[in-house]
Amino acid sequence: MFRLQGSKVLAVDMTGDAVKAKNGSMVAYDGQMTFKKLSGGGEGIRGMVTRRITGEQMTVMEVKGHGTCWFADRAAEINLVGLQGDKLYVESSNLLVTDAGLRTGTTFTGLRGASQGNGLFTTTVEGHGQAAILSDGPAVVLRVSPQYPLTVDPGAYIAHQGGGLRQSFQSGVTFRTFLGEGGGEAFQIRFEGEGLVYVQPSERETIAGDV
Amino acid sequence: MGFREINSKMVEAALQPGQRLYSQRGAMLAYRGEVSFTPNLQGGQGGFLSMVGRRVAGEATPLMTVEGRGTVLFGHGGHHVQVIELTGDTLYVEADRLLAFEGTLEQGTMFMGSQGGVMGMVRGQVTGQGLFTTTLRGRGAVAVMAHGGVFEVPITPQRPVHVDPQAYVAHHGDVRNRLSAALGWREMVGRGSGEAFQLELSGSGAVYVQASEEKL
């Protein structure tokens, strides 16, 4: 149902079913489609409170109909992720389309989120189905296993998948950093356990990049 | 002649004496052989009247005439380039998206308001494309620029296509287009899906859509 057309366009064939998509990301469609705004952080009062508190303002629309709908966002690369009951953690700005059957929610990330320049909360996607995530340049998927932990630049991190993945925040700040002699890699995220991490070949503007 | 795609952002044209092509001024990247580039004040063919028409229409992107014998590389601003072959039909495209086109094509300007009346004018404003668009008709190749990659969606009488006005690049064929507005109360109270306006293209032909909602 999700089909990549080139690396920057996602085509979704629909037969009366629905997907959730980033607001305004539709570029074309044929057949009959309706677009309805939803809000992130879950539905109902609890979702609304979550959104207010977390500032994770995910503006999502539900696209429903018969035909093909094409999605794209600022010429960013698109990566397909299959979920079989596991959980995907991704920045809401990097989430393009999910199957309507997948649940989306918000989770606390703490210091790691702040170092990414994305705030303290991130979006979770859970269930069975497909999701399409965005990256600046083609992303690589790196496997983390107990023998092989992984350390990632916060600005290049886009998503991770797998409940068995622990993450910790590393700081390499020394007295040299304060003298302006830092290597520009003062903060990192370390992943341990079992899972997948998506990394883009580009670095967002982060506080970490400056120190 | 035609254009050969070197990569997603560059095309090459092979020129023979007697052939001519037009390109956006400054879009030449490199050339081999004896090739001359002359500024084209008229902005294409069509004589004085069409020049006035284009000035008024604001579709006066400076063009240059390219003639001679050799090969020329074109590219501009790191934009993606899509080559479209015309076989007697008409291509509708914004002047600033034109990278280069063969001299065999006949250039003109079309008043967008003439399709769809008042909505046609509104469409120009919504899409940020103004009220006029450039037309190219005949047989030959056109290189068009876009932000991100371009994909082609066929339009058939059974399957009209809706396009986000910001992602629309060009279309060709016997196609009617009109702006459809899905303005409901949700849009008024700021609960819109962000897809309030769409270009509806019906008839037979094809529309080119870019993988981005940013203008060039």
From TrEMBL, chain A:
Matching Gene3D superfamilies: Mitochondrial biogenesis AIM24
SUPFAM superfamilies assigned: TRAP-like
Record-given protein name: AIM24 family protein
TrEMBL record, chain B:
Record-linked InterPro entries: AIM24 (IPR002838), AIM24_sf (IPR036983), Trp_RNA-bd_attenuator-like_dom (IPR016031)
A Pfam family matched in the record: AIM24
Transmembrane segments: none
PANTHER family: ALTERED INHERITANCE OF MITOCHONDRIA PROTEIN 24, MITOCHONDRIAL (PTHR38074:SF1)
Protein name: AIM24 family protein
Protein's organism: Streptomyces griseoviridis
Lineage of origin: Bacteria, Bacillati, Actinomycetota, Actinomycetes, Kitasatosporales
